[in-house]
């Protein structure tokens, strides 16, 4: 499929057009028509009814829901994706409330300055959805995507969405969505791209501490950062004067390797090599809480159990329902930018770290290999990293 840029989508939305927004393949994997309430034109609802064919809903912020006196549909939400439906509504001046005109009237009333608990009748023919406060960074749903797009266009936090269905009643996916886009001359984006756009433009960390750290490798400065999104704690270990260009190692926390010196992996040895290199040549080690390539410590131990039964480090993660590598490097890029670093020589054997940092505006000048010896316990693990994950070993 051919996707448009987020900037192109924002321009279209602000011009009153709709865009198609796709969520993740491992989620609903569906495309929704999305419009922003403040910018939508008079034909939007009618188009959604005629061509989208899905349920027309209106994502709103919690503040709007509170102002309108709109409560959630159920107290015990068992929806697999936690979609926050409220009680359905019609504008108080509606007749039946079902016509495209009256549904448009209902939707637009949600952003009127005099909005109050008497603006709507309940139930009705429009289904508000309450978005999470942190948007797609908290929940990668169409509700949150719509509200984030509204915010990025400078509009009030309200929009209209409708799933796109084929003529036969099945959900439009893949080629049928591409054909729909081309037939109706619409922009099409993914929630994944929206997440990256927001992460690239928004500072999502705070520096909360800085100390001197004496170690057996020498003395370093240690900075403590906290993520505004999930509260995760991240460290930067610095040697030498900070500058725009630095040697950098991004190290994912590994309790078994870094602390207990497990020989199942090479993490502990890589950290020691990096600390020695930084001590001698100056630079930064970013220590990120990405245990088990992002699946967490206990799940990593469960993966080890499967490896003992014949799985490898990739297939074990997949058997547990995870991708082989869930790590992202937006926080790492933001930590570097906070420290004034824009260009780096990266100490790494992992090509994903190079592309992950470039995606967030960090220039990679050179690669510095991390060379450690294999042992009898991690030989197969190292081979899988090389042959199946593309590590440059």
Describe this structure in words.
The chain is α/β, with parallel strands linked by helices and 393 residues long. The protein folds into 2 domains: 194 residues, DHBP synthase, CATH 3.90.870.10; 149 residues, GTP cyclohydrolase II (Rossmann fold, 3-Layer(aba) Sandwich). It has 15 helices and 14 strands. Strands 4-5-3-6-2-1-7 form a 7-stranded mixed beta sheet, with helices on both faces. Helix 11 packs across helix 12. It is elongated and about 75 Å long. The two termini are 34 Å apart.
Low-confidence stretches: none
| Tally of DSSP β-strands | 14
How much of the sequence lies in strands comes to 15-25%
Rounded to the nearest angstrom, the distance between the terminal CA atoms is: 34 Å
Helix content: 25-40%
CATH topology category name of the largest domain = DHBP synthase
**Biggest β-sheet: count, sense, barrel?**
7 strands, mixed
Main sheet strand line-up: 4-5-3-6-2-1-7
Structural key phrases:
393 residues, DHBP synthase, seven-stranded mixed sheet, 15 helices, elongated
Fold blueprint:
Blueprint: H1 6-14, E1 19-22, E2 31-36, H2 44-52, E3 53-60, H3 62-68, E4 89-91, H4 100-109, E5 120-130, H5 142-152, E6 159-164, H6 174-184, E7 187-190, H7 191-201, E8 205-215, E9 218-227, E10 233-239, E11 245-252, H8 255-259, H9 267-281, E12 283-288, H10 291-294, H11 297-307, H12 313-319, H13 330-338, E13 343-347, H14 351-358, E14 363-368, H15 379-387
Parallel strand pairs: 1-7, 3-5, 11-12, 11-13, 13-14
Antiparallel strand pairs: 1-2, 2-6, 3-6, 4-5, 8-9, 9-10, 10-12
Helix pairs in contact: 2-4, 11-12
């Amino acid at each position: 499929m051919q996707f448009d840029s987020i900037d192109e989508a924002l321009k279209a939305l602000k011009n009153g057009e709709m865009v198609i927004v796709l969520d993740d393949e491992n989620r609903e994997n569906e495309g929704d028509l999305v419009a922003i309430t403040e910018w939508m034109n008079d034909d939007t609802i009618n188009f959604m009814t005629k061509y989208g064919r899905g349920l027309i809903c209106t994502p709103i912020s919690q503040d709007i829901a509170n102002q309108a006196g709109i409560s959630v549909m159920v107290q015990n939400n068992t929806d697999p994706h936690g979609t926050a439906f409220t009680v359905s509504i019609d504008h108080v001046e509606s007749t039946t409330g079902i016509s495209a005109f009256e549904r448009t009237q209902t939707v637009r009333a949600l952003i009127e300055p005099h909005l109050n608990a008497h603006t709507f009748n309940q139930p009705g023919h429009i289904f508000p959805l309450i978005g999470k406060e942190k948007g797609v960074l908290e929940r990668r749903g169409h509700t949150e995507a719509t509200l984030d797009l509204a915010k990025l266009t400078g509009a009030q936090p309200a929009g209209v969405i409708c799933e796109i269905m084929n003529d036969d009643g099945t959900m439009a996916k893949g080629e049928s969505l591409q054909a729909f886009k081309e037939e109706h001359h619409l922009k099409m984006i993914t929630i994944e791209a929206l997440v990256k756009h927001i992460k690239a433009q928004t500072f999502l960390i705070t520096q909360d501490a800085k100390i001197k750290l004496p170690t057996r490798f020498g003395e370093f400065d240690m900075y403590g950062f906290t993520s505004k999104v999930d509260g995760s704690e991240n460290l930067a270990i610095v040697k030498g004067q900070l500058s725009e260009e630095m040697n950098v190692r991004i190290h994912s926390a590994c309790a078994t390797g870094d602390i207990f010196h497990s020989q199942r992996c090479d993490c502990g040895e890589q950290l020691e090599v990096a600390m020695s290199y930084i001590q001698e040549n100056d630079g930064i080690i970013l220590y990120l809480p990405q245990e088990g390539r992002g699946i967490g410590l206990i799940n990593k131990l469960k993966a080890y159990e499967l490896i003992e039964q014949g799985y490898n480090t990739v297939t074990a993660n997949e058997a547990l329902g995870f991708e082989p590598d869930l790590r992202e490097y937006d926080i790492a890029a933001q930590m570097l930018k906070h420290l004034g670093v824009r260009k780096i020589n990266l100490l790494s054997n992992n090509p994903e770290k190079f592309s992950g940092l470039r995606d967030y505006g960090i220039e990679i000048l050179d690669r510095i290999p991390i060379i450690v010896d294999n042992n009898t316990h991690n030989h197969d693990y190292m081979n899988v990293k090389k042959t199946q994950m593309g590590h440059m070993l």
